[in-house]
Write a structure and sequence with these properties.
Blueprint lengths: L1 H33 L2 H36 L8 H37 L3 H31 L9
Length: 160
Amino acid sequence: MLYLVLKAVHIVAVVAFLGNITVGVFWKLFADRTGDAKIMAFAMDGIIKADRVFTIPGVVTIVVAGVATALVGHYSILGTGWILWGLGLFIVSGIAFGPLAQTQRAILAVAQTGMQTGEQRAEYEALSKKWNVYGNVALILPFIALIVMVLKPDLPAFGH
């Protein structure tokens, strides 16, 4: 029973995490299409706040519940290919989140300044391109990790 409870917690955390990062991409896209710096700043501020409420706690819950589920289920984390690869993809996604978070703060600052001066469009667009690169990595890799975890393909692992 403990295994199933941990697995359920892990899955709920994955759903909340993936939902939040996916919706953030759409909010930024819709805000950028308006061309209104005030709306763009508001959307980015919301994305940053949502990351604090959903993304970061989601990451912690995913990892803790996932590792606990594996241990309770007697799965070797390094010796089970689908767990190892899923975790690896998730870690690389997390590495991309560092520069993504920095870029988000810079975008917010530029958009807020743009409300006052209106001269920040080129800088905002350059930061947005950077955000798109890191954001795609941070978005796509967890989805691939989800697919790996669900399908459980026979992937190489340590000791096998």
